[in-house]
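User: Teach me something about this protein's shape.
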Amino acid sequence: MNNRLFLSWFFTTVIIAVTSCSPRQDDILVLTERGGQHGPFTDAALEWLADEAAENGYAITEINTAAPITKDFLEKFDVIIQLDYPPFGWTEEGQQAFQEYIEEGKGGWIGFHHATLIGEFREGYPIWEWFRELMGGITYRNYIADLTDGTMVVEDDKHPVMKGVSRTTVIPDDEFYIYDKSPRGRVRILATVDEDSYTTETDIKMGDHPVVWTNEDVKGRNLYIQMGHSPKLLENPDFTQMLRNAIDWVLKNNR
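Assistant: First, the predicted structure itself:
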């Protein structure tokens, strides 16, 4: 082999080797609500996510409506973060695309707060039955409108999402939704809220009150976090550790 051919072969081989060894960028879709009373939490969460993305090499794409969601659109993303966005107002095509994405393990999902506003209280929006089953067959019933601090209690410290998270941590100024029943028995519960720890006097209680869980009956890793009202959450090291763990755990399903 002459020198010119050898150099051409050498540099081509090096480029291929470097390319094949380079880590693939993780693409995260963030579906948000902007403004309103939950706006400050969304803003703080997006700022936190931007910092994490810069540190870990994620690419973040934000949309403020579910309208763009189709099968082809979701193929670009490894994870969907549903940041205080409700499960109604989606197109039928978007619902089907998301269902396939999760059932077939094409990507993962992390949902916050408004993601379990499951009910027929919004005129013109029937219940998305598949999504209700993903969330453990629950229907939203009420919330603590006056806001309250409450103590989150880790129930499943063996799960990777709870690695390094304190057994108890105070969640500030949240609404703590209640449902027609607990999702326990249909999903894996990772944490609950101690209703006796509420700092606001209220009769809006469930008894057994899960606030973090995952459904292991689908291929796509998924996590629901009921909290998501106050920007103070992003100052809580246990909350941010849980969120950091969740992103890493969900992403590992696609790597």
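Now, about its shape. The longest strand covers residues 26-32. The longest helix spans residues 3-21. If you'd like, I can walk through any region in more detail.
User: That's plenty for now, thanks!
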